[in-house]
Known about the structure:
Blueprint: H1 2-24, H2 51-73, H3 81-90, H4 93-108, H5 112-133, H6 136-147, H7 156-171, H8 178-208, E1 211-213, H9 223-235, E2 242-244, H10 248-257, H11 261-272, H12 284-300, H13 306-311, H14 319-350, H15 362-374, H16 387-394
Amino acid sequence: MKKSIRFIAMAFLLASVLTSCKNKNADNGSNPFFSSYDTPFNVPPFGDIKPEHYMPAFERGIIEGKKDLLAITSNPETATFENTIVAYDRMGELIGKVSRVFFEVAGSNTNEDIRKIELEVSPMLAEYYDEILLNPELFSRIKSVYDNRENAELTGEQLYILENIYKSFVRNGANLSEEDQGKLKEINQRLSVLTVQFEQNVLMETNDYMMFVGESDLEGLPESVISMAAATAKDAGQEGKWAFTTQRPSIFPFMRYSPNRELRKQIYGAYINRGNNGNEQDNNLIFAEVVKLRAERAKLLGYDSHADLILDSRMAKTPANVYELLDNLWERSLIVAQREVDEMQEIIDKEGGNFDLEEYDWWYYAEKLRKQKYDLDDSELRPYFKLENVQAGLF
């Protein structure tokens, strides 16, 4: 009786949300996420996707995902690999479709609209996935299939999938008490917001920083780097100047080729201190809260630390194994690194530089050392890696 009432309540809720969503987003035909991509290799049509398309797609995706969940949990048949594990694996197709596009755009080509959507949708998704991973009926069916796996004549691949799904549910709190699951949901909600804020702060500081230089500061830079810097300055309304940013295609060529040590120090400092400048994008308090909440979540789930929780499903399994590997690499790589430091310091001394090698000097003198030892200049490789050549090699 209790399950029947829950079923009716969920069905009523879904019907209400579907009606609301239909009225709010009547023009579904214009949303690229609501139809198949008519593109080569099924690549998302990024040119047609606008910020206003994301939230309706997320909302419908969550609704469809809940319908898929309800179809599994209300199935009166005995749980099997096909009607439970395969069905679970296939659920939420739309939410996956829009998520893959949105979070790629949010991480690489964001704007104010995208940032607002990301802050709004992240807790929505955290709640949605908690509803799935902490659903007692779904976990009961998955556990039933898992407990009877030896009698189900499953293939090796099916066993692997089943074991990973079952362990994932356990690792995400399926075995916790109702009270502890409530605490876990609160932690997940808060972390979903904090991690987005952290990433957005770093991205905003990356996008906001520009170091403008004059023509005399372009010494040693390849023409391609100079052209890109001129275009960056022009886009910023500073035509006639050259601008370098903390984005990788800009900062690392500058660090590698510019002999201007003060400018290298300046842009490198901006790079490593993104989110650590005591301004609106400062991440120190966010970082501290994330660490605290991750530790609380790990303890709640029965792990000694966040590292233990994350590594439980990885090849390393434990933090001790990770440290063993890293210490092993460290001991061997430190010998080579120290030798390279000595060789770079020799170059500095021969050129009359009255200073010790610093971290912001590394790329510049490593390039000189590579040229000295191997007569290798990366800029000479550029003609072989034209866009057309790379595309041909990839496909």
